[in-house]
Amino acid sequence: MKIYTLAEDYAGYESPFLAQHGISFLIEHKGVKLLFDTGQNAQAVLYNMKLLGLKPSEIDYIFLSHCHYDHTGGLMGILKEIGRRIPVIAHPAIFRKHFVTKPHLRHVGVPFRREDVEKHAELFLTGEPFQISNGMYSTGEILEKEGFERMELEVYTLKDGRIVRDSLSDDMSVVIETSDGLVIVSGCSHAGIVSIVKHSIRLTGVERIKAVVGGFHLIDANDERIGKTIEAFKDLGVEEV
Fold this sequence. Notes:
Layout: E1 2-7, E2 24-29, E3 32-36, H1 42-52, E4 61-63, H2 69-72, H3 75-82, E5 87-90, E6 99-100, E7 106-107, H4 114-118, E8 122-125, E9 130-133, E10 136-138, E11 156-159, E12 162-165, E13 174-178, E14 181-186, H5 193-204, E15 209-214, H6 223-236
Helix pairs in contact: 1-3, 5-6
């Protein structure tokens, strides 16, 4: 199995690669290539793929971990570069209104309409966990959450004409079974990275965690939450982060 980082916030000193706020990974496993998130726009992702000798036309699936624009914004440009209809896997709620109000009202969800995406791809929208390919799974929606992993982002959605706090229930991850244990790939871990790891163990029945890769969204977390996350990783035997 290989995981290529196609875009993230930092490209490295004197690096030939482009960086942008957001994340995009390419996962190769048993002959299947899955693009995990698409960054903020397609430019950096496609540029970095070219430098790595990777062809967009060989991508088999696209997986969107959640609605945020810095994980979905490159979708349309990448689909057009792929040049054929492939499945785009995501939660059914991914196209909802999703916005912040500080410092002003701003949409921060998927920057495309569902109808526009359907012109170029086959949407596969489900919150259920399922096998994408041999040994590679979508976690589906994370329902059982650790008490200390409360989602504290000030983001909102509309429900029956009312503005309500958005719990980001569409947050999903990918789990890969390898001979060395599970590799768990997360976009932002809005569901809580410890909750995601425990869910992955229940889903697969595999207790060895080879690696946890991706965004954990602990940048504004207090010391207590970070400490509890570290202790949980130790207790779960996470080998690499």
